[in-house]
Amino acid sequence: MTDYLAAAMAMLGPAQNRYADPGAWDRLHTELGMQLPPDYRTLVDAFAPIQINAHLYLAHPATERWNLGRTIRSKITSWSEVPWDDLDLEAEEDPRRLFGLEELSFGTRNGLWPIASTDRGETIFLLDAPDAPRLLINYDETWAEHRMCFAEWLYRYLIGEDMSGPNSAAFYPGPVQLRHLPMSADERPEPWDGPDRGM
């Protein structure tokens, strides 16, 4: 059985842990009223705030800029303002019908939690399900579901699988490209490459 956290870390390179702070996670979990998964926390601590392969963004709970808690709250507010009951959605556009959700809510006990996004318009949601990890991804008015942990989703995303729906792959051969997100208005971080991965 594949250790997807180790596999994803192998593609990204050595953990940097620039902002790792258990207290920041404790404060965030208290504020949210739920625990974010350990594999997700490990990846965020290791690299965030970061842009991966020019598209995927991960924020961090211990930083002022690109703050994970503020990002989650902002996206919860935006998604909660969508008038879902008033929209004339086709079955394949309605996450309630697609995934058997009794209601569609964001940032609630049984709701969706936005934990990552891309500059292509994808939002990666965690559904805090007691039975197994579930990720729901919204992309271009479509939804995809993956019953897997975030580390597996990230690994499959980086090797070029359609992880946001049909024809959604964003595969780049060669090493994964990483870029720290700027921590001040005048900072321009240079990108760097992860280890060679034979792709």
From TrEMBL:
<protein>
    <submittedName>
        <fullName>SMI1/KNR4 family protein</fullName>
    </submittedName>
</protein>
<dbReference type="InterPro" id="IPR037883">
    <property type="entry name" value="Knr4/Smi1-like_sf"/>
</dbReference>
